[in-house]
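Table S2 (continued). Query chain:
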Amino acid sequence: IFNGVLLDITGRKVAEEALRESEERLRAFIDSTLDSVVIIDPDGIVTEWNSSCARISGIAREDALGRHIWDIFANLVPPERRTPGYRSLLEQKIRTTLQTGTPATPHPVEAAIMRPDGTRAIIRQVTFPIKADKGFWFGLIAQDVTREKQAGDALRESEERFRTLVETSPDMLWEIDNRGTIQYISPRVRDILGYEPGDLAG
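Corresponding output:
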């Protein structure tokens, strides 16, 4: 005599397949995004370090996974900021963040880094908590904004040079809008017309 029990596990298999497909889609997204993606567990261990993070930081994925995030970050700051107590302070802040679930910087922040090859970059980073059964995981998303910052600095320098040129010119220079209203007039107006620039603008 043989006894047996048949179980319909269709639902479980469907759920497992859906979970696998969801994980594959998430992996494809993380691997293809241009943004740096880092995930750390409640102990501060790096569990995700995507290809864009490797490109931006100069640290390979295999060299980052399994390490404490504060050890990595402490080596990414420019040498002039690598003071003896910096790593300890960084670890303390991150551990507090992991315990409370509250980011030390809830808004996007910009920071200067120096890659292992000596090149420098400016990143814009946002940090967010991921609630777990025990404590918090944290995600970090960052972009390389070096060119954006350089372009902004170059534009400001150009504007400053132009402003200096205009304000020291022996000629009276002005700018009017399409309605004929004076938007700017150079200080030379004092000597030529006897007016203060502020009296004519607008």
